Amino acid sequence: MVMAPSDQYRQSLVPEFLYSSKVLSHLHNTNHGLPPSTTSSINVSSSPQGSTKSPMIHAPKESSVRMYSPAYYFTCSAGGIFSCGLTHMAVTPLDLVKCNMQIDPLKYKNITSGFGVLMKEQGVKGFFRGWVPTLLGYSAQGACKFGFYEFFKKYYSDLAGPENAIKYKTFIYLAGSASAEVIADIALCPMEAVKVRVQTQPGFARGLSDGLPKFIKAEGTAGLYKGIVPLWGRQIPYTMMKFASFETVVEMIYKYAIPNPKEKCSKNLQLGVSFAAGYIAGVLCAIVSHPADNLVSFLNNAKGATVSDAVNKIGLVGLFTRGLPLRIVMIGTLTGAQWGLYDSFKVFVGLPTTGGSAPPAAPVK
Fold first, then answer.
1. How far is CA 278 from its chain centroid?
2. For residues 214 and 149, is the Cβ–Cβ distance under 8 A?
3. pTM of the predicted protein model
4. Helix 228-252 and helix 267-301: axis angle, to 10°?
């Protein structure tokens, strides 16, 4: 039987208990003619001591956005634009110093001297060189990253089935975030290439408007994607760590550090948890993705540069350590702010914050 479009949107791609509240579950059962008793095994417990809880906070009843409808994914993408674009633009000065430390460590010896050199040579304006490609590139990346993460997390949970979706939830977080980042980096790569060239070669261009045509003229359109593989190497591990560790840390905070269940915490407290968990996740992200970040900076700085050139010049130890302290500070703050802004946006439109409750226990056989 062919379902109407409205019925298709109601049809969950994942186990209902993973995402929806009792209200949504009741509506789903009513629409499909199912008695409430058929889903008693997957309903959440209202007691803090209950053994069955949803891994996500209940969707607010007043939300005008139906969970997991096209409008929901669009809203999550909008939140990704808001959180990623603004935060990356805000840390442009740190990113600028970091990139130059990676490219020219003799000139930019440390964070302090790096800022001093930039101030002396380029003035205050120099600290925001490349902010336009940064804003555009990471806004596009954020839209794809968060929107597709929500989609793939839901999709892979459905493929796994209710019991396995709970048992292997961390693997679902990892697979969903990796799949989303593959798409997100295709959107980011051209802007990242121009950004690095503008930031590390002051005489190359003033910004995106003249930098993009010059880049294409020098290396062709394909040159914009020269760094896509190293970018995947940097961003996919970064994003897998960002989402999986965030979801895990949030769950642990509510389980061990806060006496009340998430549903009884104020929105301000929930958003504070999002920032704290995001910062911890960001530190881990910086460590696992730093070697590839050095490669991306090296390849986009010089025409015709290869990965072997980077390894020979920087060295294996340098790939892991050059510019790492600054990147830990930058990415920790960045990731914490991103999760705080993303969940703030979701709360603003009436959606639940991300993560936080333990999954229901697997049924005993």
1. 10
2. no
3. 0.74
4. 160
Contacts of 61 (CB under 8 A, 6+ apart): 21, 23
Nearest to 16 by CA among 148, 171, 157, 180: 157
| Cα 1 → chain centroid | 38
Among residues 280, 270, 285, the alpha carbon closest in space to that of 353 is found at 270
The dihedral through the CA atoms of 156, 157, 160, 165 has a sign that is: positive
Which residues make Cβ contacts (< 8 Å) with residue 29, sequence separation at least 6? 35, 36, 38, 39
Decide: 199 and 141 in contact? Cβ < 8 Å: no
Closest C-alpha to 15, from 5, 23, 25, 6 = 25
- 12: DSSP letter: -
Sign for the pseudo-dihedral over CA of 309, 311, 315, 321: positive
Q: Three-state SS for 242?
A: helix
How far apart CA 320 and CA 333 sit, in angstroms, is 20
Tracing tokens 């490669």 back to the chain, one arrives at: 295
CB 131 within 8 A of CB 89: yes
Q: What is the CA radius of gyration of the chain?
A: 22
Are 289 and 234 in contact, with CB atoms under 8 Å apart?
yes
Closest CA to 226 of 216, 211, 238, 240: 216
pLDDT, mean of each 10-residue run, the chain (365 residues): 44 42 40 43 40 43 77 96 94 88 86 90 89 96 97 94 91 97 98 92 89 94 93 91 95 90 91 96 91 84 82 88 87 92 95 69 40
d(CA 268, CA 288) in angstroms, rounded, equals: 31
- For residues 289 and 245, is the Cβ–Cβ distance under 8 A? no
